[in-house]
């Protein structure tokens, strides 16, 4: 579901935030469905997405697909054009 937030930006709301309610396949499917739902304007180009994931894979803060610094799913964060690395200094 999408709703207009402040400044006219669309906000996405999680439909199922409790991981214990999802089986593993549904969990990963939801992450990739979310990435696929990003508009062309929101999504980082594939080459940039791959570079970002490369930095994340080499980072000690990556734990089970999540960033230990900010709690994001790194594949989602890397897919968003305007996102930045949470580390200081930033890796990307």
Helix content percent band: 25-40%
Largest sheet: 2 strands, antiparallel
Provide the residue-averaged pLDDT.
83
Number of helices: 3
Rough shape?
globular
Strand content: 5-15%
Kindly provide the radius of gyration, computed on alpha-carbon positions and rounded to a whole number of angstroms. Answer: 14 Å
Widest sheet: strand ordering: 1-2
- Count all strands and give the number: 4
Count of the domains: 2
* Poorly predicted runs of 5 or more residues: 1-6
Secondary-structure element order, N to C: EEHHEEH
Amino-to-carboxy terminus distance:
30 Å
Which structural class matches the secondary elements? Answer: alpha+beta
Describe the structure in brief.
This protein is an alpha+beta fold. It is built from three helices and four strands. The protein folds into two domains: 37 residues, no CATH class; 49 residues, no CATH class.
Would you spell out the secondary-structure blueprint of this structure?
Layout: E1 2-4, E2 10-12, H1 24-37, H2 46-57, E3 62-63, E4 66-67, H3 74-79
Antiparallel strand pairs: 1-2, 3-4
What features would you describe in this structure?
With 92 residues, the chain is of the alpha+beta class. The protein has two domains: 1-37, no CATH class; 44-92, no CATH class. The chain is 35% helix and 11% strand. It is built from three helices and four strands. It has helices at 24-37, 46-57, 74-79; strands at 2-4, 10-12, 62-63, 66-67. Strands 1-2 form a two-stranded antiparallel ribbon. The N and C termini lie far apart (30 Å).
């Amino acid at each position: 579901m999408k709703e207009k937030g402040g400044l006219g930006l669309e906000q996405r709301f999680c439909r199922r935030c409790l991981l214990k309610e999802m089986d593993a396949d549904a969990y990963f499917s939801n992450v990739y469905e979310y990435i696929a739902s990003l508009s062309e304007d929101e999504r980082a180009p594939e080459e940039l997405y791959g570079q970002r994931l490369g930095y994340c894979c080499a980072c000690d803060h990556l734990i089970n697909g999540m960033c230990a610094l900010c709690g994001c799913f790194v594949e989602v964060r890397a897919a968003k054009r305007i996102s930045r690395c949470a580390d200081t200094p930033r890796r990307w």
